[in-house]
Specification:
Length: 178
């Protein structure tokens, strides 16, 4: 069975480095264009997460797939953090702090997939950091809604994926705790 790829792959998609700069449905401030469409890249990440997380290899078919890979790796870090959250309110705070914490960009030493991502140049460095931070914040908020739902405890059907590593990678540097 092949991995799920983004439906948003397109040749005319704007890019930062070689990551797609896609519009998202969000309330978080940032550089991403806003959209009202049914499904954005954050929804794709959450919908494909449980299936894609089992793959050790992933064929990149476009720039949106690179963003999907990054967000899937980040979603794994989110689940590890949410597993330790005692309630939904604390989970929202944990997701916010994880989203705005310092992270490596492509081309930097701590980035796990430098072989398939281009290093951003010039003004694109700050634009990429802002865009990925906005995506991380939005993904974290939606992840809390998925994992907790109407309950005050995390769903075991989501937390069971905390030990899985998509492509055998993690965004968290070795020795650093989430």
């Amino acid at each position: 069975m092949p991995a799920y790829h983004s439906k948003l792959n397109s040749d005319d998609t704007p890019v930062i480095g070689n990551i797609a700069f896609l519009p998202i449905r969000t309330t978080v401030k940032g550089p991403a264009p806003r959209t009202e469409s049914e499904e954005d890249i954050i929804d794709e990440t959450l919908n494909y997460f449980k299936a894609n997380v089992f793959f050790k290899n992933y064929e990149i078919k476009g720039t949106a797939d690179r963003l999907l890979i990054y967000l899937t790796l980040y979603a794994t870090d989110c689940i590890v953090k949410l597993q330790k959250s005692p309630n939904k309110n604390q989970a929202l705070k944990d997701m916010y702090s994880l989203a705005i914490s310092r992270f490596s960009l492509p081309g930097e030493a701590g980035f796990p997939l430098n072989a398939v991502y281009a290093k951003p140049q010039g003004n694109d460095v700050e634009k990429m950091r802002s865009y990925l931070t906005q995506c991380r914040q939005e993904l974290g908020q939606r992840m809390v809604e998925k994992v907790f739902g109407n309950s005050d405890t995390p769903s075991k059907w989501w937390t069971c994926f905390s030990r899985r590593k998509f492509m055998d990678k993690t965004l968290t540097p070795l020795g650093q705790q989430i």
